[in-house]
């Protein structure tokens, strides 16, 4: 697979494994990731990082998976293997590797700075690109694997506790201790089945490199561990680790929705600030044509065919207006009559769209009519049925965003039907910033904005994000979403939601159902 992503929410029994290299780099997902930032847009919590060291075939990967299993409903856990970070090898080194004469168990064989860099990015809630190493070819490949969004990261490897830069990133350090004979037996089984090596080659490599490395470099790192776990029969130790991890995550938990509401209430109201004075918030000029479109879209009697047609018309107008924020430069062309004509051309190297599912998809047809042949990614952000907190459930972004080298040059047109409470919009912008997208390279296109909603907090947190909208509704009213037991609702028939008034209803449902 070319990327890690968040699928739709599922029970723990249905956790999805995304296997990367030798089935060791694994992303496990439960119900989605809650906010990791505050109303000011800044990150307020890091991912929790566990370092798991120990000898070759001591059971590190098994311990990591048992920790994941014991954690239960923790939203997203990534197991990051040291094996991905072997260095590039010269032809001479590859030849030695095939002859079992290259020392893969020495610290110098691992690209420790890259390992620490990738782990630091993930800990800071940023995206990273993990290298891919082929044991069959004894070489690091040109491709990389994209990773983003873990709440808990388990970094495992024989040298996981050896490097000081790595140790500084860990919140918990674990050493897996195992009998040497058992480790050798496991290594023989693994290398013969998974890596196609002969018994003589396995034993030669073990005696020449693996055992000396364990004695000189690996076993001494047990002194840095917070807890030492047996390589087998380790249920009690696993439970202690998972209990501690859950406690640490609870202490870092962030009730974003109440904080955002409070921040919005105490922020200067947009009612007292003419929107026309904000150069980064553009509202389509009110014309008879635009008012006619909104009249049709707001009407409960509009047919589905008409709703789709006029939604596409409005999205086309909005995206056309959004294009003025992209960078242009003077350009001269020659007409069919042989005359020079002076104009402008788009100079951005990367332009893409990102749709916030599912109502944001209603703008995609208009987007593609205006901007031809550019990639469109998707985000799925939904409210938790209990507390209303936004949850990141799915992530599939264009390549230019996933790659750190191109993200800073990428312009993103973010698509969603409306900005009401602003929770989904807030999380979407934060995700793009985590990937290295510049704030002033984000253009948010939406049909409606609620004047008394989360737009105030959104603009204060991200003042350089451009917002293009069709109209502003002055009110939001409280309502109930039936089918979920909401706290504070004594009848238990739903939870509190805020809807725009007069609004356009459930735009995604009206467009697709």
Automatic annotation (TrEMBL):
Tell me the keywords, alphabetical order: ATP-binding, Kinase, Nucleotide-binding, Transferase
- Class of enzymatic activity (EC top level): transferase
User: Any transmembrane segments, and where?
Assistant: none
Q: Name one GO biological process term.
A: pyrimidine-containing compound salvage
Q: Where is the Phosphoribosyltransferase domain?
A: 285-478
Q: InterPro entries annotated for this entry?
A: P-loop_NTPase, PRK/URK, PRTase-like, PRTase_dom, Uridine_kinase-like
Q: What is its EC number?
A: 2.7.1.48
GO molecular function annotations of the record: ATP binding; uridine kinase activity
Q: In which pathway does it act?
A: Pyrimidine metabolism; UMP biosynthesis via salvage pathway; UMP from uridine: step 1/1
Q: Which residues form the Phosphoribulokinase/uridine kinase domain?
A: 49-231
Family the entry assigns = Belongs to the uridine kinase family.
Concerning NCBIfam families, the annotation shows: PRK05480.1
For this protein, the record's PANTHER family field holds:
URIDINE KINASE
Q: What is this protein called?
A: uridine/cytidine kinase
**Species this chain originates from:** Lentinula aciculospora
């Amino acid at each position: 697979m070319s990327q890690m992503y968040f699928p739709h929410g599922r029970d723990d029994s249905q956790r999805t494994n995304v296997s990367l290299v030798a089935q060791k780099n694994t992303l496990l997902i439960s119900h989605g990731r809650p906010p990791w930032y505050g109303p000011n847009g800044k990150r307020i919590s890091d991912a929790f990082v566990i370092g798991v060291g120990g000898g070759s075939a001591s059971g590190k990967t098994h311990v990591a998976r048992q920790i994941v299993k014991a954690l239960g409903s923790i939203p997203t856990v990534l197991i990051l293997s040291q094996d991905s970070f072997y260095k590039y090898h010269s032809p001479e080194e590859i030849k030695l590797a095939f002859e079992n004469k290259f020392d893969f168990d020495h610290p110098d064989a691992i690209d420790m700075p890259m390992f620490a860099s990738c782990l630091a990015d993930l800990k800071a809630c940023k995206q990273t690109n993990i290298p891919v190493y082929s044991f069959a070819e004894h070489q690091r490949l040109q491709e990389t694997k994209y990773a983003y969004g873990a709440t808990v990261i388990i970094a495992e490897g024989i040298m996981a506790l050896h490097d000081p830069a790595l140790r500084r990133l860990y919140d918990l350090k674990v050493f897996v201790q195992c009998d040497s004979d058992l480790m050798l037996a496991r290594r023989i089984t693994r290398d013969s089945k998974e890596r196609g090596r002969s018994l003589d080659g396995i034993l030669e490599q073990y005696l020449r490199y693996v055992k000396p490395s364990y004695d000189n470099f690996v076993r001494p790192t047990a002194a840095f561990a917070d807890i030492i776990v047996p390589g087998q029969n380790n249920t009690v130790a696993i439970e202690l680790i998972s209990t501690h991890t859950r406690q640490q995550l609870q202490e870092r938990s962030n009730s974003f929705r109440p904080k955002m509401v409070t921040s919005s209430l105490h922020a200067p109201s947009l009612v007292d600030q003419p929107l026309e004075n904000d150069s980064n918030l553009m509202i389509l000029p009110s014309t008879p044509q635009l008012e006619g479109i909104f009249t049709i879209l707001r009407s409960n009697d509009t047919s589905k065919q008409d709703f789709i047609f006029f939604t596409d018309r409005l999205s086309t107008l909005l995206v056309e207006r959004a294009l003025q924020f992209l960078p242009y430069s003077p350009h001269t062309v020659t007409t069919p009559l042989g005359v020079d004509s002076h104009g402008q051309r788009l100079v951005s190297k990367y332009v893409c769209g990102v749709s916030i599912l599912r109502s944001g998809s209603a703008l995609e047809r208009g987007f593609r009519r205006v901007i031809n042949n550019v990639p469109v990614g998707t985000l799925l952000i939904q409210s938790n049925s209990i507390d209303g907190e936004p949850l990141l459930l799915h992530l599939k972004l264009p390549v230019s965003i996933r790659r750190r080298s191109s993200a800073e040059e990428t312009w993103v047109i973010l698509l969603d039907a409306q900005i009401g409470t602003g929770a989904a919009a807030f999380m979407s912008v934060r995700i793009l910033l985590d990937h290295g997208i510049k704030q002033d390279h984000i253009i948010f296109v939406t049909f409606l904005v609620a004047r008394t909603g989360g737009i105030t907090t959104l603009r204060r947190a991200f003042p350089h994000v451009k917002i293009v909208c069709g109209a502003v509704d002055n009110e939001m009213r409280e309502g109930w979403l039936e089918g979920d037991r909401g706290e504070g609702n004594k009848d238990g028939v739903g939870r509190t939601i805020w809807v725009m008034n007069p609004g356009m209803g459930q735009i995604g449902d009206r467009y697709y159902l």
